[in-house]
């Protein structure tokens, strides 16, 4: 029951966050937000000299106003400089880039690690907008689900992962 309540709360929070990014009838403007796990800062083992540059090129083409990056790992200053954006490096894992000024930073270290969650308030033409970035652990990896087991055994296997505890932390 507690997990259901927390999940409903998380969904409500996400819907509220999305509502903050919808077009305003007064301005006719839309705030575009891109969330992207760039896998190790966009650094490519196959093409080390092109990996991060390729990531930056994609971000430029997106024309997103705000970018929520996961697995930033050393790329934050280069990406921000290339885009001409402000940025808040929440942790080595998470970073928020914004074409609008960042006026406040949010971290909740008492309840959840900055490796997993943090946010900013940006000033969008005089209107404060809060934006949050999160990373939930990938375990258990659903591609490895024991499909030959009973429903109860599959559910027990799924509960051995980390996501529930991380969501409850919100």
From TrEMBL:
Q: Which Pfam families match?
A: Exo_endo_phos (PF03372)
- UniProt GO MF annotations: catalytic activity
Q: Which domain of life is it from?
A: Bacteria
Which Gene3D superfamilies has this protein been placed in?
A: Endonuclease/exonuclease/phosphatase (3.60.10.10)
InterPro entries, alphabetized: Endo/exonu/phosph_ase_sf (IPR036691), Endo/exonuclease/phosphatase (IPR005135)
Start and end of every Endonuclease/exonuclease/phosphatase domain?
34-135
Q: What is this protein called?
A: Endonuclease/exonuclease/phosphatase domain-containing protein
Q: Which organism is it from?
A: Phocaeicola dorei CL02T12C06
């Amino acid at each position: 029951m507690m997990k259901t309540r927390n999940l409903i709360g998380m969904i409500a929070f996400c819907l509220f966050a999305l509502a903050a990014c919808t077009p305003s009838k007064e301005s006719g403007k839309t705030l575009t937000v891109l969330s992207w796990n760039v896998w190790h800062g966009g650094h490519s083992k196959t093409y080390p000299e092109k990996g991060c540059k390729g990531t930056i090129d994609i971000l430029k083409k997106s024309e997103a106003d705000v970018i929520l990056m996961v697995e930033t790992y050393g790329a934050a200053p280069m990406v921000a400089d290339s885009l001409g954006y402000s940025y808040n490096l929440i942790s080595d894992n998470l970073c928020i880039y914004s074409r609008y000024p960042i006026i406040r930073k949010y971290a909740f270290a008492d309840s959840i690690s900055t490796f997993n969650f943090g946010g900013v308030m940006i000033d969008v033409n005089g209107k404060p907008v809060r934006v949050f970035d999160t990373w939930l652990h990938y375990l258990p990896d659903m591609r490895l689900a024991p499909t030959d087991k009973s429903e109860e055994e599959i559910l027990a296997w799924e509960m051995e992962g980390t996501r529930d505890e991380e969501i409850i932390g919100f």
